[in-house]
Every structure is written in C-alpha cells, then in structure tokens.
Input
Amino acid sequence: MEAMKAMKVKDIILIGILSATITAGKLALSFIPNIEIVTLLFITYTIVFGYKKTLLISIIFSTTEIFIYGFNTWLLGYYLIWPLLILLTALMKKIIKSEYGYATIGAIFGYGFGFFFAIVESFFYGIAYGWVYWLRGLLFDLVHGTSNFIIILILFNPLKNLLFKLKRTYYNNS
Amino acid sequence: MNKKITAIVIVLVVALLGFLGYRAFISPKGVEGGKEVTINIIVEKEGIDETFKYNTDHEFLIELLEEKQEELDISFEEFDLGKMVTGMMGYEVDPTSEYFHIYINGEDAMTGVGEIPLNNEDIYTFELKNL
Output
C-alpha cells in the first residue's frame, strides 16, 4: 500500500515536471514560427511513459497555454489535437519499428495541423473563415511538417534512450 | 546516418516543391501598373462611413494601406500569419469581440490584407464587425 502511494506521488511529480518541459520547450522555440519540439516530446513521452500519463500531461500543457496566452478558440483545439497525437502514437507503437515511423507521424501531424484548426475555427466563425485560415497557414504547415520530420528523425532515439534510463533510475529509487 | 541524411534531403526537396507549387498556384499575384481603387471604411457605431479613391502602382492592398496609414489613421498588429488591421479612422478594435471584416467588391475577402492583390476599379471595404 505504501509502495503504491509512493508510486502515485512519484507519478504526480513526474507528470508536473514533464508538463513543464513541454511548456518550456514550446516557449524556447516560440520565436521561430511553427518550428517546435512539442510534437517530439509528446511522441517520446507516449513511448516512454505510456499514453495515460502523457494524456494528463497534454491537458496540463493546454491549460497552461490558456494562462500564458489568454483564452482563444484555437486553444480549444489544443485539448483535442495533442491527445489525438498521443493516442495515434500509442496505437502505432506496435507497428512502428524505427524513428522513421515516428518522424512520418510528426510530419503528417505538422502538415495537417492548420487543416485541423481550420475545422475547429469553422465551428465558431463559419466555413469561409476556416478556409481562409487554412490557406493562409499553408506555408506554415509546410514548415511545421518538414521540421517535425527532421527534428524527430534526429532526436527521437537519443531522447527516448535517455528518458528510459532516467525512468528506470527514478522509479527504482522509490 | 547516411540513410537519415537522404531522408532529410528528400523531405526538404518535397517541401521546396510544395513551396513552389504554393507560389505558382495558390499564392495571390499582384498586378503591375497604375490602378484606381476605392477604400471604404465603415464603423457603424461611431457613425464612420468614409470613402477614399486612390491611384496607385502598388500591387497589394497592404502596401497601399501602409502608404496611407496616416491619412486613414490605421493601426496594424503583426501576427505569425501576417499583418492584421486593428484600427481605422482612429477607432481601435476590441480584439476580444471585434474585427475589421474585409469585402472586395462586396464579396468576403478570402485572405488577409497582406495577400489581397490590388486590381483596377476594385472597391475594398473595411467594416467593423463583432466576432
């Protein structure tokens, strides 16, 4: 029972720390439009820590975004799109055998990012607005998907190995 | 590692082709030469309904607005997606509830001011609307 409690406390601390790393990672690269490491971190966290913890991390991350940027309709999309990426990664985990698969998921995710938000915006402001929103952001989506592919291809394996090592140390010392 | 470099190069080439495709088929193109255009500004609640006629060589609406910024008392805000008009004729929008809707010859504009090409005899209407 004590061991279980200790585990839960460790989980809570871990989820808090990982959420902070995602927010910090996003802010650190926020000066470059649509180049980010959030996708890489969510995919890697899902593989290393499992989808349940990572879903909680995504909720904390999206809520933190509201505290930073104020409430916007696009932030509602965050509550959907990151869990979608996490669930997709978890589902594909058994099929994907290398970083190329995750890089491809990241690329598709980036290329489709604007389209997804255009759908969300359409519910609030109409289809015409959603269409404009998507068209105006096409070049940003191009940058987003391409940079996701490269970032994940290069950093996924080293980050995954490091996190697995840290995870073992973290939970074995309880 | 070579395999990764090859994959990265392929993705970059595809992205470049995508960019060229965007520029060729989707990105709006400006029209060179002199044009006579009309800018109409409507802020109903302030009783503003002003019309301005200009002869210009600019290719995009944003260039004309920037040139006439003082006369039209325009303010812009820069976003990742480009510039947005946040004030006209001295009226500043409340960004949480209002925006300037753009019509081109009475039709909804499909892009922001940065991507609207100027065409001869076109009428560009900016009307304050609620979100």
Remarks:
- The first helix of chain B runs from residue 2 to 26.
